[in-house]
Amino acid sequence: MYLCSVMGRNVEFDEAAAIQKAMEVFWKKGYNGASLRDLTDAMQINSSSLYNTIGDKQELFVRCVQHYTDLRRQDWDKRLNSNKSPFETLVEYIHEAVGVIINGEDSCMAVKSAFEVATNDQRVKDILIADNDRAYQFLHDLIRNAIKMGEIKTDEDPALLADYFNSTWTGWYESYILHKDPIKIKRMADYFIKQLTK
Amino acid sequence: MYLCSVMGRNVEFDEAAAIQKAMEVFWKKGYNGASLRDLTDAMQINSSSLYNTIGDKQELFVRCVQHYTDLRRQDWDKRLNSNKSPFETLVEYIHEAVGVIINGEDSCMAVKSAFEVATNDQRVKDILIADNDRAYQFLHDLIRNAIKMGEIKTDEDPALLADYFNSTWTGWYESYILHKDPIKIKRMADYFIKQLTK
DNA sequence: TTTTTTTTGAAACAAATGTTTCAGAATTGA
DNA sequence: TCAATTCTGAAACATTTGTTTCAAAAAAAA
What we know:
Number of strands of chain A: 0
Distance between the termini of chain A: 51 Å
Number of helices of chain A: 9
CATH topology of the domain at 65-197 in chain A: Tetracycline Repressor, domain 2
Largest sheet of chain A: none
Oligomer: homodimer
Helix content of chain A: over 70%
Structural class of chain A: mainly alpha
Order of helices and strands of chain A: HHHHHHHHH
Largest interface: A-B, 38 and 38 residues
CATH architecture of the domain at 65-197 in chain A: Orthogonal Bundle
CATH class of the domain at 65-197 in chain A: Mainly Alpha
Low-confidence stretches of chain A: 1-5
CATH superfamily of the domain at 65-197 in chain A: Tetracycline Repressor, domain 2
């Protein structure tokens, strides 16, 4: 991708940090709502540097979405490799995820991007599909293992339950944007957990 | 709002038809993605006419979202006033809604708008809240009456179930944008109905 | 008809958009 | 050290943006 070939000056700015900053702008304002000035201001670089190293606005957005989903992947991996039981891990995840919805101020970038640009930009769509598949895998593994270990008793297909929760999830964000009602989200989360255990 | 006071020329274009056209553009491209040229081209009016009768871009968008939610309200009213039983109405609605997700090509404008602009535009947010409340009412009425008539047996709170479905709903749109898998949506819908009946 | 008021169409508006240019600064290897 | 190469900053680029202007057209009331 970037070869520090033979000679010349080195890139001055921290690319990873710049992507992080750009991601925050896109996350908040959306793809069309974020201007290049917004972005370069936050990244603290000149547009010439941006176009030299990363590329145009679309390319930058792709990188930001990729970064966003990478962070999620890391979180899921960490949780899967903990020494807690599957069901414990699942419940903890759901509760923490509710916390993210309630305390976060900008909803979920993956969801926002799916609705705003996934239909127009195939590369973004592919990244979001991969992210969604990993979310599904995460839930599916936990539910399946919880059943195997007898923590959950259900005659329902774990694949269906994973799909169902994976999508249910999105609606909680919308609900919270409109109603800003933490209790409502918590009740729905509790209901979902209850469905698993009976 | 508009008084055909005493004298002068009449408005030439059909405002309702123009709003409908503008709505379709916003629906497809989003608020920031739709330019005034896009809009006036579709509406087949000059921008001076737009600014004279309706107002600026924000005002136009508000009217379009209002129009979108009006159409939904009409649909719910019609269904509530049918001579079918509550449960029958509910199941029919869910199935038709699945059909809209699967066959429609632009997801749901209310959902897209919630994620793109509800956090920035209080007027849009208020319209979407009212719409969401009506959707809740619709589901709540049907579930409550179905229980009363013995069509549904559940020890769960109808209010919770209505909330739950009302938000679940949104995730099915995202799922379909990414995976374009009709079976997946149908299975989730069937699972939801099954939850109600047992 | 004439007068009065309003809408329309085309053009123009300033500001903002995404992107490129290029001279000079900086860093590397020789 | 010097030559070679690359990055940076500021400015400029052509478009596109949302919005306004205004003369001409149209229609209602006098």
